[in-house]
Amino acid sequence: MITPQEIKKKAERKYEPFLQSIIESKPFEKLVIRGDKSYTKSSLPEFENEIQLIVSQSKENKGFGYTLEFQRVKTKGLGTQDLPISIFFESEIDFLKFLGKEKEVELFKESVNKILESFPELREWIIKNPRKIIQNQTRWEDILKVCQYFQQNPKPNLYIRELPIKVHTKFLERNQSVIRELLDMLISEHINIDEKLFEKRFNLKYAEPQIRFKVLDKEIAQKFFSGIDDLAISVSQFETLNLPIKKVLVVENKTTLYTTLTLPKMNDTIAIFGGGYGVLNLKNVEWFNDLELYYWGDIDVQGFEILSQFRSYFPQTQSVLMDIQTFDNFFEGDQGTPTKISIELNLTNLEQELYNILNENNWRLEQEKIPFEYVNNYFDNE
Fold it and tell me: Where is each Wadjet protein JetD C-terminal domain found (predicted)?
């Protein structure tokens, strides 16, 4: 036989459809809870306790909640007994008091009215997302302020904290998920649909990633940067650089970027800190297309996977100091990090052979463990 706990679980599953019926202005209809009409107790006292438990939490006993309808049935072993054949909630108040949701539904109705007064076009979204209305119960007034601002100013070109909206400075950042959903509908013709970053999607300024690079040609450093050879600028600024260079060396680790200070003078060359998979930030640097590109990463599976990624942007990329001879000379038995990548990589035959060895043995040789003298000699002979 069904227990009060099971009745509550089944009633809770009907709560969301009930909320949807409120938005759709449907009158409350009797909510029926399907119950197990069988009984599990073999003795009369146990059976009576089972019945007493279900009755104790019913409207008959508590004044609200579910109503029980009984039918006299001839049972096997217990004779003729009154068994519950129907369990239902007669009214909205019975249902909500049983779930302890009266106040929540009152606030839900207020929130729905606020949203529809400002944006009647959100009606279908509300019907599909009643739980989100409740999850943001105390924030709707400010959420609507944000939406109203963007509807009037769909391309603000300001930083989030510059927006002239009378909400807490961190409000939009903390509530991006629901605001994004709403703006996608309210200003759909103005959004950058392929962008996932909130600021890019909704035409806002944002703190761009920085590209850190070293100018290895002192004459270029002097002419263009007053002798400064170690710089960091935003991605968009880096994409517009116009330097008289022929070669770019991308290095995986920051420590290796410092190593380039000791390199022999390299004419017409800059070295860039790629930051591992951060090479993604370089994918739209169109002036790379006409240059000689070199990638120097750790000799491990991730190093070659990053090389493959960078080469997918710029097919002319060559690897440096990522060969079997360098590995054999300086490998100290370090363990690497197992790869999760199973796709075919964009590597040369020799690179792929070394990658397979590293992958099978989980080996790693970090850039920092290659002696400066060896590195200097390598580039001196290039």
Answer: 206-377
Residue 368: which pLDDT band, with cuts at 50, 70 and 90?
confident
CB 94 within 8 A of CB 61: no
Name the pTM for this structure.
0.64
Lowest mean pLDDT among 18-22, 224-228, 272-276: 272-276
Strands 79-89 and 67-75: antiparallel
Q: What CATH code is assigned to 210-380?
A: 3.40.1360.10
What are the tens digits of pLDDT across the range 142-180? 999 999 999 999 999 999 999 999 999 899 999 999 999
Q: Mapped to the 3 state alphabet, what secondary structure does the chain carry?
A: CCCHHHHHHHHHHCHHHHHHHHHCCCCCCCEEECCCCCCCCCCHHHHHHHHHHHHHCCHHHHCCCCEEEEEEEEECCCEEEEEEEEEEECCHHHHHHHHCCHHHHHHHHHHHHHHHHHCHHHHHHHHHCHHHHHHCCCCHHHHHHHHHHHHHCCCCCCCHHHCCCCCCCCHHHHCHHHHHHHHHHHCHHHCCCCCCCHHHHCCCCCCCCEEEEEECCHHHHHHHHCCCCEEEEEHHHHHCCCCCCCEEEEECCHHHHHHHHHCCCCCCEEEEECCHHHHHHHCCCHHHHHCEEEEECCECHHHHHHHHHHHHHCCCCEECCCCHHHHHHHCCCCECCCCCCCCCCCCCHHHHHHHHHHHHHCECECHHHCCHHHHHHHHHCC
pLDDT tier, 64 (very low <50, low <70, confident <90, very high otherwise): very high
Q: Quickly state the pLDDT bin for 262 (edges 50, 70, 90).
A: low
Q: Regarding predicted confidence, which is higher, 270 or 256?
A: 270
